Amino acid sequence: MSSIDKPSIAKSGSFALGGKIVRRLGYGAMQLAGPGVFGPPRDRDAAIAVLRHAIEAGVNHIDTSDFYGPHVTNRLIREALAPYPDDLLIVTKVGARRGGDASWLPATSPDELRQAVHDNLRNLGLDVLDVVNLRLWGDNGHAPGEGPVERELSVLAELQRQGLIRHIGLSNATARQIGEGRRICEIVCVQNHYNLVHRSDDALIDELAGEGIAYVPFFPLGGFTPLQSGLLSEVAARLGATPMQVALAWLLKRAPNLLLIPGTSSVAHLRENLEAAKLDLPADALEALGRLAGGTESH
After folding, report:
1. Which of 243, 245, 259, 274 has its CA 20 to 30 A from that of 13?
2. Catalytic residue of the set 27, 68, 194, 215
3. Class of domain 6-225+252-265
4. Per-residue pLDDT tens digits for 8-36
């Protein structure tokens, strides 16, 4: 057992995803790639150490994609962790590619999606992918749009029938798109932008919780612009925690179907993130944090 005891992480609870029971505090591998999620890591040994420490600490849900790098994070995961623990769930994404200038570009044609699945299989060293999220493109590639999903999901559903994918999810999706998707295949998870400040998916989270579908917030700590708030810092100081630990603890409290995948390239930061599972938020802290919705800090 590592310096972070597994029972403390398990305190955050668990949830069913992709045919496995996973701890609600997982790990996102995006930051293991180089600057801008492009190219190799600054410190390869440190990246390997973070992955191994996560598993030793009890993490059994890793989120990745072959367009991180590209190909970088999946190869690091394979090098660090294969042969994989039986209880480890690896979730990946398709639907994007990287330009030579590190740009993020759609890659949603049938041929591109098939190639992406095979790339993920090869670079992770797997015969079948546990969960594949289809990354949708909305407003400039960021905010969700309302385009149809049938063509893309039908490709993944066919690969699922071929035995290359076990389960399918959606990323950057609206409620309407999720409804359309569920008429094509089972949707086991939704991965959208959500955190203490960005709460536009509140109603969707509650609806999915009622259906037993996992919701995996990306940018749980603000993404490339970390959450910054005087009120958040005040609450954290009162609880003897860091602002980011409070932000993660709030998400764990928000709904039982939220699965967190904070990312880092540092073992020390990983430990800090995982310690959030121990943090209990009293009623007055929850009330104060409730005022952060939409970026407001009214008193």
Report:
1. 243
2. 68
3. alpha beta
4. 676 679 999 999 999 999 999 999 999 99
φ/ψ of residue 193, rounded to 5: -75, 120
State the average pLDDT over residues 235-257. Answer: 96
Question: Active-site residue 27, yes or no?
Answer: no
Specify the pTM: 0.94
Q: Which residue has the higher pLDDT, 102 or 5?
A: 102
Is residue 2's pLDDT more than 50? no
At residue 206, does pLDDT exceed 80? yes
CA distance 2 to 284: 33
